[in-house]
Amino acid sequence: MYNMLLIVCYNVAVMTWATYMFSPEPARVTEEAQFAPKPVLQRWNQVLAGEDSLSGTFIPNMERIVDRVMARKH
Q1: What is the pLDDT of residues 16-72, one digit of tens each?
Q2: Angle between the 39-49 and 58-73 helix axes, to the nearest 10 degrees?
Q3: Quick check: pTM over 0.85?
């Protein structure tokens, strides 16, 4: 019984290895594509800044956004 379990485990391990070995390699991503600005983030910056242009960024405008929100609450 124990030998049969070892054989099954070995076969599962070999089949798993073979699956990964013969599966196609994922496409490589260039560094430029990894660090390119994402349109979704630019849109969030635009909406949070309340501006029509994409000139502002999230972090520099954070203080102004917080002041605007705090002014509405009081």
Answers
A1: 999 999 999 888 877 766 666 667 777 777 777 776 554 556 666 777 778 888 887
A2: 40
A3: no
For residue 41, what are the contacts with CB-CB under 8 A and spacing of at least 6?
A: 58
Give strand ranges (E) for 1-74.
Answer: none
Residue with token string 């960024």: 57
Contact 47, 61 (CB under 8 A): no
Query: Which of 74, 72, 45 minimizes the C-alpha distance to 57?
Result: 45
**CA atoms within 13 A of residue 43's CA, in its CB half-sphere:** 3
| DSSP label at residue 50 | T
Question: Distance between CA 27 and CA 41 in Å, rounded?
Answer: 24
